[in-house]
Amino acid sequence: xxxxxxxxxxxxxxxxxxxxxxxxxxxxxxxxxxxxxxxxxxxxxxxxxxxxxxxxxxxxxxxxxxxxxxxxxxxxxxxxxxxxxxxxxxxxxxxxxxxxxxxxxxxxxxxxxxxxxxxxxxxxxxxxxxxxxxxxxxxxxxxxxxxxxxxxxxxxxxxxxxxxxxxxxxxxxxxxxxxxxxxxxxxxxxxxxxxxxxxxxxxxxxxxxxxxxxxxxxxxxxxxxxxxxxxxxxxxxxxxxxxxxxxxxxxxxxx
Length: 255
Description:
Layout: H1 12-17, H2 20-37, H3 62-78, E1 82-84, E2 92-94, H4 96-99, H5 104-114, H6 123-134, H7 138-160, H8 170-177, H9 192-209, H10 211-215, H11 222-252
Antiparallel strand pairs: 1-2
C-alpha cells in the first residue's frame, strides 16, 4: 500500500528537509494505519517499499529516511503520544493520549494547544486564555492574561483597605499598589531598591503587554504570546503572594 504521506512529500529530499515535528504531523495518518493493523509496530515500516520503486525515492536514501522517521517518532514520544512497547523491544505503540488522536487534524490541534504550557499557569488564568490561544487569537489571549493581572492587583488592594479610584488603571494602578513606601502590596521586608524594582516590573509588564493590545492589532506570534502569558501567570502568583503576606501581617498586627 502506498503511504498517504506521498501526496504531501513526493520525493526524498523534501522528506529529509522537514523538521521532526512537521514530519510527524504528515506521517501521522500512516502511523495510525500501522497501529490499526498491529497495535505495536516498527516505525520504519511506514516507508513500505517506496525506496527504489518511487521516482522520488531512489535507492541510496533508505538509511537517511529511516533516521528521519525515528527523529519524528522521538518527537511523538517526547509529547507522550508514542511509547516503547514494554513487552516487544524495538516496537512502539500509541499511548493512551496518542490513542485519543485519530487523524492529522487532531494532532494539529494538539500541537497548537501544547505551544502554551498550561501546567505552568494558575487554573483561573488557563481557563480564560487557553481557548483564545488555541484558536489563534494570540493578541486577545495576551490582553486577557494581563487584564487578569490588573484585576488581581485591584482585588488584592481592596482586601487591605479602601479601593483605588476606578480611574486608576493599568500602569498607574500597578505603581500605586506596589509603591516602595506606600503601596499596599509592597514587600517592606526588602530593600527600597528591590521594592522599587518590583513596582517597575509589574507596571512595565502591563504597559508592554496589555496596553498595546488595547489600542491596535499587534499580531503577536505564537511563541511570543505563550511566553507573555506564562509571565502573566508568574505575576499573578506574585500578586497573590504579596496579598497573602500582607493579610498575615495585618492579622499579626491586630488590624
